[in-house]
């Protein structure tokens, strides 16, 4: 059974896909009228928009499925596959655009009806930017890599349309036809770079590359809400499964807490992060007993078994939270 957020995201992506098909038809109609290579590059990228939108919709449906015996961490990783394929398609489209623009330097095609092409490109660029803006925002709220990738792609498409408009206007004013190929080469290179970045980001997710920005957010939450019983947090690791996060960490607690008390402290840390981040976060927390060296940084003022006076309060940072080592030792 899908939750409300997943249903909303899937419905929105379905609308984006339908609009993408309409914009694709408009861009090819514009190319048919103008025979502009620059406009063709924009239209070809829209094919990628539609294909990528279909992949994004498919990945959101798959990622929304609950955990099962075969997928104990859920199906969220499919979002990285979707955005990776999108990046590959975009990069290939960029290569094709570069090749065709170079070819037409030697075998030029007459460009005409640019006024209509400019009008259609302006409209489609504005629509793509608006769609990309909302997709990116909804993706961030839902922590959906597929939606953010699609949003960034549509926004980059809008910016490339802006560059295309500048080029078309220059051609329209100067009547210099070969400028069309120059604009197409610049757009092709930009589109190729956009595809490369998406592939790079997807591989990082598949390979569980550390997201230091996200980890710093978690550390800031724990610093601002730390309890006296939390002597330190270490060996923190975050794995992304699409919109879901899996977090492993060790928490050092006073050694004299019983099992129930230690469990309660771990539960409070889990609840704190989930409430503050408002995301679907699964915590695996390992509790460690404090050692004599921990006394020097322990902030528990009512400790009756303290062996050393407090020397300093250690601010939790990347370097000490990621390390698999108790603080103060």
Overall geometry: elongated
Q: What is the CATH first-level class name of the largest domain?
A: Mainly Alpha
What is the count of distinct domains?
A: 2
What's the arrangement of strands in the largest beta sheet? 1-2-3
Please give the share of residues in helix. Answer: 55-70%
Order of helices and strands: HHHHHHHEEHEH
Mean pLDDT: 83
Report, as a whole number of angstroms, the end-to-end distance: 48 Å
Low-confidence stretches: none
Judged by helices, strands and strand pairing, the structural class is: mainly alpha
Q: What is the CATH-assigned architecture of the largest domain?
A: Up-down Bundle
Outline of the structure:
This protein has 329 residues and is mainly α.
Task: Give structural notes.
- It is a single chain.
- The chain has helices spanning 4-34, 37-63, 78-106, 114-142, 145-174, 179-206, 212-224, 259-277, 318-321, and strands at 232-241, 244-253, 280-289.
- It is mostly helical.
- The protein is built from nine helices and three strands.
- Helix content is 64%, strand content 9%.
- Helix 1 (4-34) packs antiparallel against helix 4 (114-142) and helix 5 (145-174) runs antiparallel to helix 6 (179-206).
- The longest helix has 31 residues, at 4-34.
- It folds into two domains: 4-206, Up-down Bundle (Alpha-lytic protease prodomain-like), CATH 1.20.1510; 212-321, Alpha-Beta Plaits (2-Layer Sandwich), CATH 3.30.70.1350.
- The chain has a three-stranded mixed beta sheet, covered by helices on one side.
- The protein starts with a helix and ends in an 8-residue tail after the last helix.
- The chain is elongated and about 90 Å long.
